[in-house]
Amino acid sequence: MMEFEDRYRQAQRPKYDCLLFDLDDCLYPLSAGLAVACRKNIEDYMFERLGIDKSKISDLGNLLYKNYGTTMAGLRAIGYDFDYDEYHSFVHGRLPYENLKPDPVLRSLLLSLPIRKLIFTNADKVHAAKALSILGLEECFEGVICFESLNPTHKSTVSDDEDDIAFMGLPLSSSSTSPTSSTEIFDIIAHFSNPNNDMSVLPKTPIVCKPSEDAIECALKIANINNPQRTLFFEDSVRNIQAGKRVGLHTVLVGTSQRTKGADYALESIHNIREALPELWEVDKVSDVGYSGKVPVETSVIA
Q1: What is the CA radius of gyration of the chain?
Q2: What is the pLDDT of residues 15-33, one digit of tens each?
Q3: Whole-angstrom distance between the N-terminal and C-terminal Cα of the chain?
Q4: How far, CA to CA in Å, does 233 sit from each of 65, 139, 195, 244, 293?
Q5: How many CA atoms lie within 13 Å of 178's alpha carbon, on the beta-carbon side?
Q6: Distance of CA 256 to CAs 72, 120, 176, Å?
Q7: Cα separation of 228 and 249, whole Å?
Q8: 138 vs 9, 42, 119, 135, 296, CA distance in Å?
Q9: pLDDT for 252-300, tens place per residue?
Q10: Phi and psi for 170 in degrees, rounded to 5?
């Protein structure tokens, strides 16, 4: 009888224990314009605070984003020193948040989902909290895995390098206008323009972020997710989806109905989640929802 009950419970167990959601351009549409504004702010930061030649900024930004996941991670890799909080404040602080609107339909959908839900974003905690609050979705998630979760020792230092000891003693006004004098900048544009160079030999970044598989594995560890195959990952970025797939996650590409390589599902909009994945709601009321241990949540950020 016991064996039958165990089998029955297994049959009733939901397919997924956890749903991981990206935030930007995933829980609100790309048409909100935050991504375009963010890119402009990054380019302004590169010019105003790092003193990078305006004519190189577009090409440099594209190369860094392509090779390091975020422009920020790439700037650190090639030798620029800056305060992470100051960078985020500059880049996100002036975003057109007024373009975001409360989304009671999505809120209702998410609250009705009987499965553990977490945010997993490359953005900083201030931006994540602000965007979720405006959307009216802050109560829909157990916690937020963000930049500070993945880079817990960032504080106002920029890395563990000895060079950064000097950086800490400098006022932001002088340290933020140019890289520290002891740092040599790696010319990534020249590197890629020379076909004889080994494209696989690039400086490493101290920043942990998607689409790095290490970042995804780190997020799973923070969230106490032991089995990635029982986790569903919602993302608008194809390369993040593909990285998630390599780590073993089930994946949902948001923002298009075209399923690309690495995506198990594709949604034109996050609002289509119930039509596309009705099984997420088909959980037996008696059986336990698979919460694999409570995650420590501090001011909604998972540390």
Answers
A1: 21
A2: 999 999 999 999 999 999 9
A3: 43
A4: 21, 19, 37, 7, 19
A5: 8
A6: 27, 20, 39
A7: 5
A8: 32, 26, 10, 8, 16
A9: 999 999 999 999 999 999 999 999 999 999 874 444 444 444 444 443 5
A10: -90, 145
